Fold this sequence. Notes:
By secondary structure, this protein is an alpha/beta fold. It is built from 16 helices and 15 strands.
Amino acid sequence: MEISNYSRRNFVKTSSVVSAGTLLSVPHIANAQNSSKTLKVGLIGIGGRGSGAAAQAMAADDNVALTAIGDLFEDRIKLRSRILKARGREKFQVTPETTFTGFDAYKKVIDSGVDVVILTSPPNFRPQHLEYAVEKGVHCFFEKPVAVDAPGVRKVIELAKKAKEKNLGFMSGFCWRHHYPKREIFKRILDGAIGDVHAMYSTYNGGEVWKKKREDGWGDLESQMRNWNAHLWLSGDSIVEQAVHCIDMMQWAVGDQLPLHAEGSGGRQVYNDPDKYGNIYDHFACVYEWENGSKGYHFSRQQNGTVGSYEVELFGTKGSSSAKNRHTIIAGDDSWRYRGENNDMYQTEHDELFASIREGNPFNDGEKAAHSTMVAILGRMVAYTGQKITYSDALNSKEDLTPAHLNWEQPLQVPAPPIPGVTRFV
Length: 426
């Protein structure tokens, strides 16, 4: 696949990054054109994030209704539908006839007549679900990451272009790009507030995320699906499923230019039980390098009892910045701190998606989201193999993580965790 690398200057000229003040001037969706049409929303994947996104979609528009829900498991729908119904009230219009389960539930939701679909199932299925939605002409909100492997990323890049051709909304869940303080500080960084960025330091260090113990009666596939974030083929590992937020902010800081290559390490120090922890790593340390010589250092871990850190720090020729937490620029007399309005970024992303649909100019960040996902996958690849890998080679990797079958009855063995120096790049 051909890779486009944009110069920092060109990006600043053409970027859609705007200040919070500019955003506040955008009319609310209720006042936009075509507001009389009820926008029907479908939800695929009714976990915690899916429920939150559906509630935010219902709150984003005065004339919207949640009309269909699909999930692999009926018990999850029953549990969370009650919560959504209480939050959405008259906007919750899901019926038994528009409630679907199984691996084909996504098709049934999309075919039920929805205008917008929220895709929040495990990341492995994202490209497949997006492809069907775009084919059917449905606007999409889809959580990050966009895929778990390079073939999936390449598919989403193609779909982002098709969505633009069909004038469809195609918004990713990279929520920090909808946070007013982040928009303002990254705008200043891209305008040269700290000079040329030479080094970046990002962390996503925390404890273990939720894990579900296998219950009696669960086959291999159900056990893995119920505990999806512990399995490489479903989540892409923690650097892709979780820490990708910080990697996306490093990408933001360099104007979404693509790195040349990366190297790194990682492993399992506390994730020592395959029944509970699957085959993912519990820590990563990676360094990326861009064409101008700037480097990005990324560290992440999921280990209980350790010091937490969730930060993105940038160092340039004129100064430095805490872009994630303090929203400050340290540059002598030109030092600055964000003191403007804060916002609920999760709500803002839906407000902006629905407003853009009403205005006939649907939001589409699919290519950026796909490349940020791929940068995270590159970090996983170099940690797993112990090799230095170029972005181009990573993007063109043939490694497909999806198992040979998705059958409830057949055994589905959990592959052994990767071993640096032994595991090979494919």
